[in-house]
């Protein structure tokens, strides 16, 4: 339905309006919809972090 994308874009708009330089998040390859969406929006992988609940996670950042 695109709700996740709409929420993410709303967060990015708020960050831009607050003059934030970078938005960061953590996500996992198990997030089969979210991870590709973040990459399409321009987020870049910064580094891997320890697994959470046995799932691999990484930090991503989007420069605004």
Describe what this molecule looks like in 3D.
With 64 residues, this protein is α+β, with helices and mostly antiparallel strands. Helices cover 34% and strands 39% of the residues. It contains two helices and three strands, in the order αβαββ. It has helices spanning 3-17, 34-40; strands at 22-28, 44-52, 55-63. The chain has a three-stranded antiparallel sheet with strand order 1-3-2, covered by helices on one side. A hairpin with a 2-residue loop joins β2 (44-52) and β3. The longest helix has 15 residues, at 3-17. The termini are far apart. The model has no long low-confidence stretch (mean pLDDT 96).
